[in-house]
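G., the chain you wanted modeled:
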Amino acid sequence: MTPQCDICMVVHDDVIHDSRIWREARSLNAQGWRVVVVCIALGNSHLPDVQELDGFTVWRVSPRIFRSRDRVRTTRKLIQLAIALPTVFRRIRQSGAKVYHAHDFTGLVMVALAGVRQPVVYDSHELFFDRTFRGLPRWIVSLLMALRPLEKRLAHQSVAFIATSDSHADRLVQNLDMPRPVIVRNAVDLRRLGDRAAVYPFVGERRVVAHSGSLLDGRHLPELVEALRHLPDDIALVLMGQGALADKLITQAETLGVAERFAIVPPVHPDCVAPTLSQADMAVVLPTAISMSAQFSLPNKFFEAIAAGLPLVVSSIPELKRMVDTYDLGLVCDPTNPADIAEKIEALLQPETLARCRENAKRARSDINWANEEKKLIAIYQRIFEQIEA
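Predicted structure as tokens:
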């Protein structure tokens, strides 16, 4: 079999809005290593099965067994996944890669089941077994939890281990009894920023508070919308993204009488998030600690706000609070309390505070960026390929 690549990345999503996959694949490809990403597109995806993106290739498995107008629920997704997996395993083997890069526990399992014997890099984006499994029946959750020892076994077989934050790394060491992973934060690549891809309403008319990312539970978005009711009329809220909560949030804004200061704009390409976000005066990042994985997370939207040079109001998730305090980027609020969210937003928008935190965000951007993070990723692969070629 003729090798198709040097590095085969394996991931369970469709890649399009997965900024970490893009950045890692792009950086490794720029070093002269041919990268193929094997991924799965569940749901009503009409994405191509083979796609060239920024120098790397995506091999996408899309089991299309339901009509496009059908809403793909959890059970159907599980059926699609079961149908897709044999093809995924075949694609992994067909890549003939020298190294396999497994994203998350799901990627690690898919690489193992494909039966490849080449070195594996385990890139853990989250604490898979320390998160919530919303939408799944209890019996499926029980089966998943029974796989917990498997993560430790497969992780110990990997040749390199990557985490996304200090707290995340500490917990992985505790869970898996392994040496501390290399921390590669999902910072924005300032060298690859695109153009502004959406126009925010209210700019120039009101002070704009922005939120980027999917409109889903666990991000205190209803509380954020309600906070508008406690804020002056010259402050508006713009959400950039899509998701299950969109219609509910629009209805909520209308019910509260703040619809004229509230807007949702569509998601944009990962390289365009920061330039689009920069139209705002400040950003909010309000994840909830619904699980240990969430508690130890450092969300993409934090890095996007830093890349946009925006001050922040954040929830008291440990990693977020630590970063905001370290760089003096903004204020910490109680995300369950709309009045407190509003109080912190209004305090941050005071001219002196806003100017100070904006300057600090610009300074933080020189440290927290992908040009610095990718050096650690490249060093991992240089070591691996030196060992392979020795």
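Residues 66-72 have pLDDT under 50 and may be disordered.

Shout if anything looks off.
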